[in-house]
Structures are given as C-alpha cells and as structure tokens.
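User: ok so my PI wants both of these folded by tonight, can you help

Assistant: No problem, let's get them done. Here's the first:
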Amino acid sequence: MADFYAARSGTIPPLPWTNFAPPLSYLLSTPHDVYIASGGGRASGSRPAIGPGIDPALGRQGLQRLIDGRPAFDHLPSVRAKRVHGIWTGLITNLPLNILYIAQAAKWLHPEQCVDLDPAAMLDRINRDFAAFPIEGPLWASI
C-alpha cells in the first residue's frame, strides 16, 4: 500500500496535460479503437452520470453528449466503430472494486478473448459475499 501512496505523491512523472482527461489534440493524434470515459453521480458538463442507483439511460445520454459536444470526436475510430463506453469513477478510485473496472475494461478492449468474463456477476458476488451494503448497478454504460 505504501507504494501506491508513494506513486500518488509525485514520484511518477506527471501526465503531459494539466488534468486527468486528455485534450482533444492528444486523442486525435493518437486515436484508439476504444474510448472509455469515467463518470459519477455528480457528473456535469461532458462527464456522464454513471454510478450506483443512477438510471443507465442517463449514462448513455451523457456519453452521447460527450461525443456530440466535442468537435472532431466523430473522427475518432472508437466513435465511428461505436466502441464508446463509460464507467463509474468509484470502480477506479476504490481499490477493492478495481477488479470490476479491470474486468469490464478487458471486455471492452478485448471482447473476443474475454467472452467468459462477467463483471455483472462479479458485482453480484461482491454484493452477496463481501459488501456491507449492496452497490446497485449497472456501474458502466456503452453507446
């Protein structure tokens, strides 16, 4: 755990941009086959509303707003191929739930190799066997 906090304290070189989201110029110059956005319950602007207890339609609408609201996004291979996804930020920032983020991202990035992965079943198992209170899904969305 100490290594995790040491990494967050600045010993790892910073991103080449000023905030967590890469700028459009970076996305256009280094296009990828899949685009994964993060979102949360307090999502605003271009971030999708994705998280426990949130209507999945709001997450999909937020992803569409993200694409429609950014110039040139329609030129990205991931958008043209309809491989745009969003995931609850809590799965990224809450270490015990990282396995759900990894499983869902793996399915999106490598669908043929990860056919048998079932992140929804994993969430059900976490809720049944480990969680003090259930985490309502879905915690991800796609358009």
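One down. Here's the second:
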Amino acid sequence: MWKRVKELEDRLLQLEERRKNIEAELNALPNGHLESKIINGNVYYYLRYWEEGKLKSRYLGREATKIKEQVERASELKRELSMLKEEERRIRKVLDRISLALGID
C-alpha cells in the first residue's frame, strides 16, 4: 500500500510541475480568440479577448499566421491544464482519504 501512496505522491508532484510550466507558457501567449472580417473583399484579422469585464478587439492586419498558431497553442494548453487540474484534484482526494483513514495529518 505504501508503494502505491508513494506513486500517487510522485505523480502529484509531476502534475504540479507540469501545471506550473503550462501556466508560465500561457502567460507568454495571447489570450482570446482570432476573428476575421471581410471588408471590400479583403480579410482582416482581430484578436478578441476579455479585459476588465469588457470584450476588446486588437487589430492584427491581413496576415495573422503567427498569432493564429499562438492562439491555437494556448487553446491546447488550456485543455491540457484543465485535465491536469482534474487529475490533481482526484489524487489529492485519494491521498486525503488515506490520511483520514490512517489518522495522519
């Protein structure tokens, strides 16, 4: 049993480290989503995001390949972060139950 507890604790440490890395990478990436508008047959790109409770737009121009890749990467990281947090929550719950059952603080 202690071997399994140690495995859970090690996995929890790995998850915490990965979560911190993802959060740091997300801070460096643009927040929001990409929107395009067609005006007079030309495509213009905007980054849409929430700031202080208001939806804001930032004009990006006609070419937004780099920003698009960054926004997609941020979206992937947010999904991964959500899954990591859920796994962290489940592992903490199991470890808390074990501690409670054994009377350990």
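The helical segments are 2-28, 65-102. DSSP finds two helices and three strands in the chain. Good luck tonight!
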